[in-house]
Specification:
This protein has 352 residues and is α/β, with parallel strands linked by helices. It is built from nine helices and 18 strands. The structure holds zinc ion.
Length: 352
């Protein structure tokens, strides 16, 4: 009897080990939020190895952001970027492009068009220098193939998709929606995309502002509910993160791509009043299970206005931060694991 029991234990160990190995090898849809200090650079890798980078961070003398993007690409096992999406022509989204193109091959580029504000024409020029012969504009409502992942273009060049996707429907929150006027024209032109892998969804709307979010959410929420949402405007929620939108898309996890002194806890351009309500608004989102931040906000370091340190990739000032990423690894059944590149802390989330 004793020997049988021992045999059963060994059998159980063997079976569990086999399952664990199979799980470790099953392909995942991976998303890296590269730390570009309050800019944007989100690297997505399909389960079959296709790669797409959304934005390229800032232009700095030491090519910091381009190097951090390449480091994340290397971590993901990539030797090239198959598709680059520039959401809009602002320095924090396209600044690192020229340096990046010298470090890693970029096969093709997508954009909202080549129109911009006069003050940002230089970024269109940089973009055309790198992507001029391999670019295309995307339109809202378009679907792009990306291995087994579907990409729905939600927004582009000031236009939004006509027909709801992802189970989107009437939004009862619209009755009491707070409305604001449109801000920076170039932010409104951002390319926004919904990535769907089986039951997992990820929404990245670039820097769409509050007024555009209301347009996207009222009277009908056109994007449904999502698993992971990347904050627009880097978490500077005076001018984005409208509750009417945020509380309708009901993200399980929110990733804030802020900098130590930009985005979450700070003021948006054109706003003078410092608001400390940004984090609290995210935390009050119905169904929220986790908030992850690229940086601890040094504008508003109150622990009540930041997530737990284990879910913050970079804790200090810019120079000491080390540029750690946050990663999501999602399975087709909708389960996903978030990992902090700084300390290896990870957390698994079940499909809703
Ligand atoms: Zn931005």
């Amino acid at each position: 009897m004793r020997r049988v029991a021992r045999a059963s234990v060994w059998l159980a160990v063997f079976v569990c080990g086999a399952v664990a190995t199979a799980a470790a090898q099953s392909p995942t849809f991976d998303i890296y939020w590269v730390d570009v200090e309050g800019g944007a650079a989100t690297l997505v890798v399909s389960p079959t190895g296709e790669s797409l980078l959304v934005d390229t961070g800032w232009d700095t003398d030491d090519d910091r952001d381009a190097q951090r993007i390449v480091a994340a690409a290397t971590e993901a096992g990539l030797t090239q970027i198959d598709q680059l999406v520039i959401t809009h022509y602002h320095a924090d989204h396209v600044g690192g492009l020229r340096a990046l193109a010298e470090l890693i091959p970029i096969v093709s580029c997508l954009d909202h068009g080549t129109n911009t504000e006069e003050s940002n024409q230089r970024w269109v020029d940089v973009y055309l220098e790198v992507c001029g012969d391999k670019r295309a504009a995307v339109e809202a409502g378009q679907t792009l193939p990306f291995g087994p992942v579907a990409i729905d273009i939600i927004a582009s060049d000031n236009r939004l998709l006509d027909t709801p996707v992802n189970g989107g429907g009437p939004n009862p929150l619209c009755a009491t929606a707070e409305r604001k006027t449109q801000a920076s024209p170039e932010n409104q032109r951002s390319v926004g995309a919904l990535f769907t892998y089986g039951r997992f969804t990820f929404l990245d709307l670039g820097d769409l502002n509050w007024a555009k979010e209301i347009e996207l959410s009222c009277p009908v929420n056109k994007v449904g509910e999502v698993a992971v949402y990347q904050t627009s405007r880097h978490g500077a929620f005076d001018d984005a993160g409208a509750p009417t939108h945020l509380y309708a898309i009901k993200p399980q996890v929110v990733v804030v791509n802020n900098g130590p002194r930009k985005g979450l806890g700070g003021t948006s351009p054109g706003f003078t009043e410092v608001s400390t309500a940004h984090y609290e608004r995210i935390a009050a989102s119905p169904g929220i299970e986790g908030i992850w931040q690229a940086h601890r906000s040094l504008l508003d370091p109150d622990p009540a206005h930041n997530t737990a340190a284990e879910r913050i990739a970079n804790l200090g000032e810019t120079d000491a931060s080390g540029g750690h990423w946050i990663r999501a690894s999602a399975s087709q059944d909708g389960t996903f694991t978030m990992t902090n590149g700084r300390n290896g802390f990870s957390q698994r989330y079940s499909a809703r």
